[in-house]
Amino acid sequence: MAGKSIIDKIWDLHTLYVKEDGETLLYIDRHLTHEVTSPMAFEGLREKNRRVRRPDLTFAVMDHNVPTSDRLKPIQDEMSAKQIEALERNAKEFGLTLFDLYSPFQGIVHVIGPELGLTIPGITLVCGDSHTSTHGALGALAFGIGTSEGEHVFATQTLWLKKPKKMLISLEGALSNNITAKDVVLWIIRNIGTGGGIGYIVEYEGPVVREMNVEERMTLCNMMIEGGARTAIISPDDKVFNYVKGRPYAPSGDEWDQALEYWKTIVSDPDAEYHKTIRFSVDKLEPQVTWGTNPAMTVGVTEEVPDPRDFDDAKEKQAVERALNYMGLQPGTKITDISVDVVFIGSCTNGRLTDLIDAARVVVGKKVAHNVRALIVPGSQLVKRNAERLGLHRIFIDAGFEWRNPGCSMCIAMNEDRLRPGERCASTSNRNFENRQGPGGRTHLVSPIMAAAAAVYGKFIDIRMLDLPSRSEVLEYARTYKGY
Amino acid sequence: MLEPIKVIEGKAAPLRLENVDTDQIIPAEFLKILGKKGLGRYCFYRWRYNEDGSLREDFILNNPKYRDASILIAGKNFGIGSSRENAVWALQDLGIKCVIAPSFGDIFYVNSLKNMLLCIKLSEEQVKMLQELAERENLILRIDLEKNIIEYRGGVISFDLDRVVKERFLQGLDEIQLTLKHIEKIKKYEEGMPSFLLPKARRFIHD
Ligand code: SF4
Fold it and tell me: Average pLDDT of A47-72?
């Protein structure tokens, strides 16, 4: 008999019931929720006089709407304020732990789950947000769900799901200097397309993944959604166990030992079977930059903006034309000739400490170009505090970056952080859809290193040409840096 | 509880775009509305309106011919991107009852089902054929969910429908109530759940 993958193992352990047609009732160990997709779910509960079945497994946070400027001022946007109040009311009424605007643990839901130890290996986790796949980096089976499903999980602590197919993506070779998880995942999406993963759960494996730290793996899993996958997951290893250990909600004492024993059993067997296996070598990978209006519209930094005439398929030709028109780009433009107005470093894709350290490697000793507005929005209060403890904020602030409070911010432009029409942004977020960062805004998705370089040089550059300090060197520098 | 639906009949409009993401179906700024009703006005907002609020002539659904359409025939990967269920509510509020496409974003597909917005997958050729028909003439489709067929003047197309979807539409269910029939299984799992899997704030968490 063939072995089982981590997907099968967690799935089976959480299966309560299977219908004839394969629909499975799964128990959900963690439910994370935020102010934007939850109000109608709570409303549904109230209408039917239902309770949240397991308030102890349900956690709420404010992230999508929240201002990233001064938290002590009232929220300007009336609608945002209403959603935030609604979450406060709902959390109270249904007895949920809430990380509100003033909580020292507030942050983007996919950043705080892992860092608080709410996300641990071997569990099922859901959240009303597509990038819930992020939590797969710790070996949790994590699904983004809609509002109706959210209501169902609130009321029953279960989810009906047909088991998706399994795709194994093996990343082989070794990354060149300064090439990051973001470049890898953009490049995968470029290869498989925005629909390439539809119907699949993606499991990553291979030496490249093992080499990455847990935060980098979160970037990989986070963005797999943009390739259409239902979610992504990685078998946990010592790096994950060390990451989880000691976190506020993580198991401790005897329970830590029991947990560890269990976690070691859920990793994929070497002879596990998949519906599809793709092997990529990352040896020659260069920094990736999106040029269009979906994340598969990506090229390497040494390449050019494509020409619609080079596409045979009529629909593709049309899509490329439309995207170039929206992006205000001419076919054949070199990526390194594109200048930017705004740089956004943040989001659940790249708003963690590793990302900020990487950005600092470029910024140290330099200034933001005079015509560029550059923002850093740490993914959570903890990320922010840790960065400040390390002294990174001084490097950014002295260079001319805005150092903001945590939230989704310019990833989704639901608060006041947004692009003006026609503005061009180098962004570490995950979606370059039309109008995503503000009406008429133009988004180029890149890694934190590429974004930081765009801030300093005012345009995209091949960061492999820069002689950057290592992560530990920059931390040492920050520790002793006293500012100007 | 949603009412059962056995037949959907209405005018079809072609939306010849692929990878239509839910950010386009309903932009994020309208997610702040605390309700399901009235979202139709904002559906495809940036494609439908000019900056001054007038209708954009180049957007297909603004064509008077399609104003009363209730069936959308779209390109592949319809509804990719964000999990926002508001995309479904907005389409429904606009009067759309069914979307036909070669493929759909996974979460959008499930969200649609929960709200009984029918999503039908047809082959790329069939979709193209219907789009062309809808452009040429007044295409009225009659979708029969019991027989799994789409009827129109001059033809019949049969389609596959997941049993889950079919049951849902034909019976109209309160899913939570149905799930609670399995309450014993839920309780049993909870009793057996190892304590180490439960989140406990073991450290001083509120500074
Ligand atoms: S940072 Fe962006 S992608 Fe992540 S949860 Fe927030 S809005 Fe969604």
Answer: 93
What residues of chain B lie within 8 A of the CB of A228, using their CB?
77, 80, 105-106
pTM for the structure as a whole: 0.93
Calculate what percentage of chain B has a pLDDT beyond 70.
97
Taking CB atoms and an 8 Å cut-off, how many pairs form between chains A and B? 192
Return the pLDDT at A484: 60
Overall number of domains in chain A: 2
A144 is a domain residue: yes
Residues 163-192 of B with CB under 8 A from A: 163-164, 175-176, 179-180, 182, 185-186, 189-190
Residue A209 or residue A1, greater confidence: A209
Contact assignment for A50 to B176 by CB distance below 8 Å = yes
Q: Are residues A85 and A57 in the same domain?
A: yes
User: Shortest Cα distance from B76 to chain A (angstroms)?
Assistant: 8
Taken in order of first residue, the domains within chain B and their CATH numbers are 7-173 (3.20.19.10), 174-207 (no CATH)
Nearest CB to A25 within list B164, B182, B199: B182
- A326 and A274, same structural domain? no
The tokens 């599809």 sit on which residue? A276
- Reported as a single tens digit per residue, the pLDDT across B119-171 is 999 999 999 999 999 999 999 999 999 999 999 998 999 999 888 888 889 98
Which of A430, A436, A445 to probe ligand 1 with, by most ligand atoms within 8 A of CB?
A: A430
Ranking A8-17, A185-194, B34-43, B95-104 by mean pLDDT, the lowest is B34-43
Is B162's Cβ below 8 Å from some Cβ in A?
A: yes
CATH of the domain at A368: 3.30.499.10
- Domain annotation covers residue A393: yes
Q: Does residue A284 form part of some domain?
A: no
The pLDDT confidence band at residue A1, using thresholds 50, 70 and 90, is confident
Q: Name the residue among A426, A354, A368 with its Cα closest to residue A402.
A: A368
Name the 3-class secondary structure at B198. coil
Same domain, A239 and A261: yes
Residues A102 and A245 in one domain: yes
The encoded tokens of residue A462 equal 């091949």
- A240 and A221 share a domain? yes
Cβ–Cβ contact A434 with B under 8 A = yes
Residue B105 with chain A: CB contacts under 8 Å? 198, 228
A283 belongs to a structural domain: no
Task: Specify the range with the lowest mean pLDDT, choosing from A32-36, A115-119, A347-351, B33-37.
Answer: B33-37
Which pLDDT band holds residue B207 (cuts at 50, 70, 90)? very low
Partner A, chain B 81-140, Cβ-Cβ below 8 Å: 81-85, 88, 103-107, 110-111, 114-115
Q: Do residue B195 and residue A155 have CB atoms under 8 angstroms apart?
A: no
Average confidence (pLDDT) over B67-78? 96
Does residue A149 share a domain with residue A74?
yes
A224 & A319 share domain: no
- Whether the per-residue pLDDT at A437 is higher than 70: the answer is yes
- In terms of residue numbers, what domain contains A266? 6-278
Residue at which a domain ends, from A235, A250, A278: A278
CB contact A412 to B (< 8 Å): yes
